[in-house]
Amino acid sequence: MIPPRIHLLTAAALSFYMIAGSGPAVAAAAKRAAPLAAKAKAAPSQDEEGSIKAQLQALSKAVTDANAVALAALWIKDGVLVDEEGTQTTGRADLEKKFAAAFADTRKQTIEMAPERIRVLADNVAVSEGTVIRKAADGDAEPVTRYTMVFVKQAGTWLIANATETALVPQSHYDHLQELGWLVGEWSAEKDGATVHMKADWAPDKNFIRCQFETQKPGEPQLIDNQVIGWDPRAEQVVSWNFNSGGGFSYGSWTREGRQWLINLSGVQGDGSTSKGVNVISKSDQNSFSWQTLKREVDGVAMGNTEPVKVQRVVR
Questions:
Q1: I want to staple 10 with a disulfide (CB 3.0 to 4.6 A). Which of 2, 81, 196, 225 is the partner?
Q2: Domain final position from 164, 186, 212
């Protein structure tokens, strides 16, 4: 993205998006540009859309080249930029100074403007909305911001009249976790006189599934364990954190194989010993599944596999 402190296509957090069709700054820019318009159009012609896309490509190149002069030249003379902190910069000369200072204070960056919609409101007024994509040296690319710009045509060239940015709204991880949504509810299991009762629910933002296990063995105090299931965006994998009432904790990485989930666990027990294992959840239907632990180790010593336990949904 553009270097920090440029804020348009830049920000200290490398995140912004520009809001179109709302807000006083955009409205004022459109009003200012209105006298230039001749006749309203419902959609851009291919030539107009292509010209605006060419300007967005020129913006990407100016950022990649760290060329403050070329970047500022894409604005009209009295163009406006309002960054995510609400700071307004007006005029091509001040924009050039702002961009030059940012380029001098950060490493080179490569971005791509990916327009999703271009609306020509009149012969000489248009709005572009889309995504800013940051490209890494290893070839990876990721969308990091949303943008919207008001363009006006001067002397046959589309130039930016107004650009406003705010931080990109983070996306929920619900889409990655919803295939585990069937776990939400109450469950119970019994084996060799021991009973386990589990409750699972969504966190309010649906970025996590929270589970609580209550285990009761004959003649022993009840144990309460807690688990949080989430999504690791870097590993692109479902993960979990487990905490038991004996002071132990573990971390799990989840992999789906058909109707089974394999959970590779590594942890530390309350007494300081280390543990490893693979939990296998095999879904039978919406109301039952089996649970088994394979490849158990404690301090590197193999402990064998457990027998599968059938778990049933509690229907009230």
A1: 2
A2: 164
